[in-house]
Design goal:
Number of domains: 3
Strand order of the largest sheet: 3-2-1-4-5
Oligomer: single chain
CATH class of the largest domain: Mainly Alpha
Structural class: alpha+beta
CATH superfamily of the largest domain: 5' to 3' exonuclease, C-terminal subdomain
Radius of gyration: 18 Å
CATH topology of the largest domain: DNA polymerase, domain 1
Number of strands: 5
Number of helices: 10
Distance between the termini: 35 Å
Shape: globular
Strand content: 15-25%
Order of helices and strands: EEEHEEHHHHHHHHH
Mean pLDDT: 83
Low-confidence stretches: 135-139
Helix content: 40-55%
CATH architecture of the largest domain: Orthogonal Bundle
Length: 199
């Protein structure tokens, strides 16, 4: 399994891109959420990757963040959802917006994404809701637990710390101990990390 690629961005033509790693050009497909964060061609880039092996091809997908890749992998476990739909969803909304749709059971926002029909959207709401609850990763719920807004600095700090590898339950406990009011996202993360290393 290829976990990530770090190299020079040799070309980008959505949804395809090429990364030159030591003279070897890796072809990948990526969602628009990742394309928006890519540097100019010729500059260095690092992407998290997911490899799909089929009888007729090995397909490599690239993501700007671990949270994008994790959501993509969860989507592939949903019946009837393949890489094409996974890329479409991540191109139509970011990870936080998708999780908020699932928590709110917002089928209308999902069907606005090109390629997502109502049946697929309803299946996503059912299967992803259970998966997200099991992982305790719904950002809006965590934001409420720490007294923040679903889209405010506390929620952003929560998502960032989960991406860093902290368990959602642990992040919620840490953020409850931080006076998050009037603090920027970076300051909240800094204070939470101080608490984490001092315990």
């Amino acid at each position: 399994m290829i976990g990530f690629l770090r190299g020079r961005l040799a070309g980008k033509h959505p949804p395809a891109l090429v990364i030159d790693v030591g003279g070897v050009g890796y072809e990948l497909e990526a969602p628009m959420s990742t394309f928006y964060q890519l540097p100019e061609v010729g500059q260095d880039v690092q992407l998290f990757t997911h490899l799909v092996v089929r009888e007729d091809a090995h397909l490599l997908y690239g993501f700007a963040s671990e949270s994008e890749r994790r959501l993509f992998r969860d989507l592939l476990r949903v019946s009837g959802v393949g890489p094409k739909i996974g890329l479409a969803l991540l191109s139509g909304m970011n990870v936080e917006a998708f999780l908020l749709c699932i928590e709110a059971q917002d089928v209308e926002s999902l069907v606005r994404v090109p390629g997502i029909g109502r049946k697929t959207a309803e299946r996503l709401l059912v299967e992803m809701r259970d998966r997200i609850r099991a992982l305790e990763e719904a950002p809006a719920a965590a934001a409420r637990a720490v007294g923040g807004s679903a889209r405010g600095p506390a929620a952003e700090a929560f998502a960032a710390m989960v991406t860093l590898g902290y368990r959602p339950v642990e992040v919620t406990r840490l953020l409850k101990q931080v006076e998050t009011q009037d603090l920027a996202t970076e300051e909240i993360i800094r204070e939470a990390l101080k608490l984490a290393v001092s315990k």
